[in-house]
Design brief:
The protein is about 35% helix and about 20% strand. By secondary structure, the chain is α/β, with parallel strands linked by helices. It has 2 domains: about 280 residues, Metal-dependent hydrolases (TIM Barrel), CATH 3.20.20.140; about 90 residues, no CATH class.
């Protein structure tokens, strides 16, 4: 037998989480794994000796804001360098299709905090036009989700009210269109506009459509107006009424939700969640304002915030959200204050932290993003991260943001850090458990049946790494640093990373849900 590629002598971590790593050769023809075992006598066009290296399935990032970065720019290969070979689209319900030019421009203005600087504002009037953008244009595979923010915007604009019966039918029809295009899930961002105005009736109706196609619901829950525990309860009620499995974005297994996770076990609730395992998040400062001041289009919000009475009313609430005021400026439209803490930047401007934060939103036309450390003691944060890392319902996702000057370190280091810090240094996870949480588990959960595992017939999305040296290079102080110890990454049988460097190849595809 002759293969296109033969990987010899590797330690195979197959992604199932059920089998210890084992020594085996892997034979690849075209874009498929066609043989696994002792292939010493086989021939190949190219042979790689993976002695002293682990070989795993490509990692799958189910929540990351990099779909525009994949199409070009300085961070195009940031995911591939971590071993990511597939990512989901439309995190937090964000999306720009199918939208007309005016709405697409508004949504871009609103979401730019999570996507940084790109060559042009996105906008696609059909779903297929959007998905076709990624064909032969990305180093990674992408899988669509239904972008709830875009669906609601297309039907209702930025209106702050429940949908009428006719509007709900129109949103259901758009959701059907997305599922017909192969979407894996309904993606919700219930702290973001315009989705924050959706009521439970709307969420249940759209979830029923997605569930009927075998999809699931991913949700950034309604934390801001409900509080965390009530937001979890809303998600469970939505699941109960619609019958849809739910996956909760960027969460953690702490004391506040321990009883809910225990109930999920007792009642066999079909629930999973993801984490990036850092004690900080990242979003725009606008989210720290009272929800009433965030509502409407980006221009509506800026106009409202110019009212001195609104500023006076918002500052006490904003101060409460800011806690220790140790947030770090990661992105501003003007490029000012990058890398400074909120306290440092406010001191430079001669203002209190809450005054500076409020005014910066206006000065930057709403385009700004901060790293937000958890406002809990360090020992509590560390214990929470450890519990989260071990939780059987948790998978890894980066929630990365790209093309900005000072991102969260998770953007460039999340997956490598799991292998280096939580597996090798801490022994908190076994290598098999970690790879399962980064590959096999998300592939199974999101209906990507030929990804996430090493077995005959599976796609040749593979990572070769050194378990003794793999590590994240990114830190909170210096977040734009590539990982080390990840030697090669293959997407659909083609090499996208060689000797730790991008090859420039763009073999990524649009993966449709399979059930």
């Amino acid at each position: 037998m002759t293969f296109d590629l033969l990987i010899h002598n590797g330690l195979v971590v197959d992604g199932t989480g059920e089998r210890d790593p084992f020594s085996a050769d892997i034979g690849i023809s075209g874009d498929r794994i066609v043989a696994l075992g002792d292939l010493a006598s086989a021939r190949a066009i190219r042979t790689i000796d993976a002695k002293n290296r682990a070989v795993s399935p490509g990692f799958i990032d189910v929540h990351v804001h990099s779909e525009l970065a994949l199409l070009g720019g300085k961070d195009r290969f940031a995911g591939a360098l971590q071993g990511i070979t597939t990512q989901l689209l439309a995190p937090d319900g964000f999306g720009w299709a199918p939208l007309g030019p005016a709405h697409a421009r508004q949504m871009w203005d609103y979401t730019r905090f999570g996507y940084g600087d790109v060559a042009h504002a996105p906008g696609w009037e059909t779903i297929e036009a959007y998905l076709n953008t990624f064909v032969n244009c990305t180093p990674l595979n992408v899988c669509p989700q239904v972008p709830h923010c875009a669906v609601r915007l297309a039907v209702m604009g930025w209106d702050v009210r429940p949908a009428t019966d006719d509007e709900l039918k129109a949103m259901e029809a758009l959701t059907e269109d997305w599922m017909a295009a192969g979407a894996a899930a309904l993606s919700l961002g219930l702290d973001y506009q315009p989705a924050a105005s959706a009521d439970l009736r709307e969420l249940v109706a759209l979830s029923r459509i997605v569930a009927s196609h075998g999809g699931i619901c991913t949700t950034h829950q309604r934390y801001h107006t409900l509080g965390r525990k009530a937001a979890w309860e809303e998600t469970l009620e939505m699941s109960r009424q619609s019958g849809i499995p739910v996956h909760i974005s960027h969460e953690r297994a702490d004391a506040e939700v321990a009883d809910i996770l225990d109930r999920a076990d007792r009642e066999d609730i079909d629930l999973t969640f993801e984490a990036y395992l850092y004690p900080a998040g990242m979003t725009h400062m606008t989210m720290m304002l009272p929800m009433a001041y965030q509502q409407g289009s980006p221009d509506d919000v800026l106009q409202r915030l110019r009212d001195p009475a609104v500023r006076e009313n918002a500052l006490p609430s904003l101060r409460q959200w800011l806690g220790q005021c140790d947030q770090t400026v990661g992105y501003t439209r003007s490029g000012r204050y990058i890398g400074l803490t909120l306290t440092q930047a406010a001191a430079q401007a001669g203002k209190t932290p809450e005054e500076f934060a409020y005014d910066l939103i206006l000065e930057e036309d709403g385009v700004q993003a901060f790293v937000f450390p958890w406002q809990v003691p360090p020992e509590e944060a560390a214990a929470t991260i450890d519990r989260t890392a071990r939780h059987p319902r948790m998978m890894i996702a980066s929630d990365g943001i790209y093309n900005i000057p000072h991102p969260h370190p998770r953007s460039h280091g999340c997956f490598a850090r799991v292998l280096g810090h939580f597996v090798r240094e801490r022994n908190l996870l076994t290598l098999s458990e970690a790879v399962h949480k980064m590959a096999g588990f998300p592939a199974c959960r999101f209906g990507l049946k030929d990804r996430g595992m090493i077995a005959e017939g599976k796609a040749a999305d593979l990572v070769i790494f050194d378990p003794k040296t793999v590590s994240a290079g990114s830190t909170f102080e210096h977040p734009i640093q590539p990982p080390t110890g990840i030697d090669r990454v293959f997407v659909n049988g083609q090499t996208v990373v060689e000797n730790g460097r991008p090859t420039g190849k763009l073999p990524g595809r649009v993966l449709r849900r399979s059930v």
